[in-house]
Design goal:
single chain, 235 residues, Arc Repressor Mutant, subunit A, SH3 type barrels, 6-stranded antiparallel β-sheet, two-stranded antiparallel sheet, 8 helices, globular, disordered C terminus
Length: 235
């Protein structure tokens, strides 16, 4: 899959829009993009119009920006670079899963297809990054993990963690300290609706014995996707 000629701004915009659609199924408004990218809304509006003229987006003022087929193809390439770099930094350079996003944001615009292919092979062609997000294959195909948010788990149910949103590094550090990472197993012991929290048991992966307990705020639990042990990551 060759990389089309596109500037850093274009790659950043299409990637952010694609990632929003990946888990919510919706495009982004101008204000949502401005908040995510850390720029003013007027600048975003002008850039969206430019990218729409260039064929990367479908966009009407005051509406949600969505990707055209050209924009989606580019976004998948950028996401592939980003997630492979994150995985490489964790597995070969000792980075924590909360530290890799900013580094990958820089490197994703510079790494060549040839180097990326070597990184992919050295890693053993992984299907997901350290946060559980699927890594697009070289041909652009993607297999998403089956799963639902932890908050949707039934009381008393056990599940494996298949994804944790990388939106907030502080939350990743917090969850890592609780041993809640991709591949962990948990049981929803009780739901505290009035307190807005979940009582969780951390389970041993092999025999599912309880190795710890914690109280997790619902807002934190919303960042965690889980699936039954029988499903796991799709391949």
């Amino acid at each position: 899959m060759s990389t089309p000629t596109a500037g850093t701004m274009t790659e950043d915009y299409v990637k952010v829009i694609w990632k929003a659609h990946e888990w919510s199924g919706e495009g982004l408004t101008t204000n949502e993009l401005a908040s995510t990218l850390g720029v003013v809304a007027s600048s975003v509006s002008g850039n969206l119009k430019k990218l729409a003229r260039e064929g990367y987006l479908e966009y009407e003022p005051y509406g949600r920006a969505t990707l055209s087929p050209t924009g989606r193809a580019l976004a998948i390439q950028v996401v592939r670079r980003h997630r492979l770099i994150e995985t490489y930094l964790v597995e070969h350079h000792g980075y924590g899963w909360d530290e890799v996003h900013d580094e990958a944001e820089i490197l994703e615009h510079a790494v060549s297809d040839r180097l990326l292919a070597k990184i992919d092979a050295e890693l053993g062609f992984p299907d997901h990054d350290p946060h559980g997000d699927p890594i697009p294959r070289a041909d652009g195909t993607i297999t998403h993990p089956r799963g639902r948010r932890l908050t949707e788990l039934g009381d008393g149910s056990c599940a494996g963690v298949v994804r944790v949103s990388d939106h907030d590094p502080a939350l990743l550090r917090f969850l890592g300290g609780l041993a809640i990472t991709v591949g962990s197993h948990v049981r929803l012991a009780e739901r505290h609706a009035f307190a807005g929290s979940l009582g969780l048991e951390i389970l041993q992966a092999g025999d599912l014995t309880v190795v710890g307990t914690t109280e997790l705020a619902t807002v934190a639990a919303e960042a965690i996707w889980v699936t039954s042990a029988a499903e796991g990551h799709a391949h």
